[in-house]
């Protein structure tokens, strides 16, 4: 019975410690995020040591510590992007995350060490760092050219039209009008060939006439020379 009474007394004593309920802190990538934490500085206790750590607050100290202070100044700083910018002498021990990243999301523990057994003030805060939202600009709308009224500044704007593309399968295969089809091309080619043959024959006949004329002239010259001899 005495043992059970001691356990119950210990449990009640542990549960009466001043623990501040957790809260949610949200921010965007690239911003400086401030995770708030304060404690009261009075004549009885004054400034005191404290620490920041990742994950929920353990029974004592801070797991995965980030920063330690002795109440007046920072004594240990494990990461350069985590710092205390508040007035430590007034109990402002808020954590500032410089140039926040998505990896900074998670649970943070702020432990203020108050002298005495189980008097530490602990705060568990959930930090969520999201990617910055990129706004998409709406497309510009153009109107047809307009003429402003006399005496006012005139502005000209234009309508941009996009014609639907035509695929190769949808393109017209034949065209009407002066264009020739396949049979017309064949007839033209045949006519050109016949003209070429006739011209060649005409040139050949002209050469034959020249040769015969030349032979006759040579024969006459020989005959005249024979008569004189």
Specify the number of helices.
Answer: 2
Using DSSP, what is the number of strands?
9
CATH class of the domain at 22-132: Mainly Beta
CA-to-CA gap between the ends? 176 Å
- General form: rod-shaped
Write the CATH fold name of the domain at 22-132: Immunoglobulin-like
Keywords: Disulfide bond, Glycoprotein, Immunoglobulin domain, Membrane, Signal, Transmembrane, Transmembrane helix
Signal peptide: 1-22
Subcellular location: Membrane
Domain Ig-like: 18-130
Any overview of this molecule?
By secondary structure, the chain is α+β, with helices and mostly antiparallel strands. It has a domain at 22-132: Immunoglobulins (Immunoglobulin-like, Sandwich), CATH 2.60.40. It is 27% helix and 22% strand. It contains two helices and nine strands, in the order H-E-E-E-E-E-E-E-E-E-H. The strands form two sheets. The chain has a six-stranded mixed β-sheet with strand order 1-9-8-3-4-5, with no helix packed on it. It has a three-stranded antiparallel β-sheet with strand order 2-7-6, with no helix packed on it. Strand 4 and strand 5 (74-77) form a beta hairpin. The longest helix has 47 residues, at 182-228. The chain is rod-shaped, with a radius of gyration of 52 Å. The termini are far apart. Belongs to the immunoglobulin superfamily. TIM family. Keywords: Disulfide bond, Glycoprotein, Immunoglobulin domain, Membrane, Signal, Transmembrane, Transmembrane helix. This is HAVR1 protein. InterPro entries: Ig-like_dom (IPR007110), Ig-like_dom_sf (IPR036179), Ig-like_fold (IPR013783), Ig_sub (IPR003599), Ig_V-set (IPR013106). One of its GO terms (molecular function) is phosphatidylserine binding.
